[in-house]
């Protein structure tokens, strides 16, 4: 595949969705064919699963059910959207991917990393990004931004308590430290333009 697969990861409130749009605009201005997508979602089948995963009370699904649903959504997303775009040479920017499952269902909920990666191998043939940009903020600032964002109501994951989100943040850090060749840690503080510049710098070499 001749394209480039870039994922943006991080906990609630770090600005992934905003920065994905800004990064896409910057790459298009450089002449690249860019696809913007998200997880869960990104294909017709995956969006249907997203509706089940993101709505309802926090305990609607247990961790095992969530892991299976995310893996199923991801399999459809990879097959229908990501791989075809990469094969034609596009840059695919994705808001969350397998590392979110590893941090949420793994680090915070206790599913083993090996089991999550095994599901990923079956459903998505183990596809990994060329680079993963992990946006980071102090917990208080991230919580403030998430609260502003969710004034209309948080989804099932955003509504979970601070202890849960601390486990997620710690899990992301541990994954990034274990895979430094793929991950870049990005300070998400400051103006949106400043953060976008940091993201572009983190793509050097691609």
If strands are numbered along the chain, what order do they take across the biggest sheet? Answer: 2-3-1-4-5
Shape: globular
Task: Pick out the low-confidence regions.
Answer: none
Strand content: 5-15%
H-E order: EHEHHEHHEHHEH
Q: What's the alpha carbon Rg, rounded to whole Å?
A: 16 Å
* Major sheet description: 5 strands, parallel
Distance between the termini: 14 Å
The overall average pLDDT, rounded, is 91
Q: Give the tally of β-strands.
A: 5
Q: What is the helix tally? A: 8
Structural class: alpha/beta
Proportion of helical residues = 40-55%
Structure description:
Helix 1 (16-29) packs across helix 8 and helix 3 (63-87) packs across helix 5. This protein has 8 helices and 5 strands, in the order E-H-E-H-H-E-H-H-E-H-H-E-H. It has a 5-stranded parallel beta sheet with strand order 2-3-1-4-5, with helices on both faces. With 206 residues, the protein is an alpha/beta fold. The radius of gyration is 16 Å and the shape is globular. The mean pLDDT is 91. The chain starts with a strand and ends in a 5-residue tail after the last helix. It has helices spanning 16-29, 44-54, 63-87, 98-108, 113-124, 139-149, 162-178, 192-201, and strands at 4-9, 34-38, 91-95, 131-136, 183-187.
């Amino acid at each position: 595949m001749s394209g480039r697969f870039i994922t943006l990861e991080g906990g609630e409130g770090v600005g992934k969705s905003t920065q994905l749009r800004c990064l896409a605009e910057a790459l298009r201005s450089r002449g690249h064919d860019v696809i913007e997508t998200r997880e869960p979602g990104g294909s017709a089948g995956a969006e249907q699963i997203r509706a089940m995963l993101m709505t309802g009370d926090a305990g609607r699904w247990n961790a095992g059910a969530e892991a299976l649903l995310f893996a199923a959504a991801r399999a459809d997303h990879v097959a229908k959207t990501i791989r075809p775009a990469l094969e034609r040479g596009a840059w695919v920017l994705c808001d969350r991917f397998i590392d979110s499952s590893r941090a949420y269902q793994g680090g915070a909920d206790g599913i083993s990393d090996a089991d999550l990666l095994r599901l990923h191998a079956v459903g998505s043939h183990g596809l990994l990004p060329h680079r993963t940009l992990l946006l980071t903020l102090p917990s208080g600032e991230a919580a403030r931004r998430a609260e502003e964002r969710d004034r209309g109501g948080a989804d099932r994951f955003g509504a979970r308590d601070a202890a849960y989100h601390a486990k997620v943040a710690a899990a992301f850090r541990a994954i990034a430290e274990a895979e430094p060749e793929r991950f870049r840690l990005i300070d998400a503080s400051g103006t949106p333009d400043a953060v976008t510049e940091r993201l572009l710098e983190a793509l050097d070499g691609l």
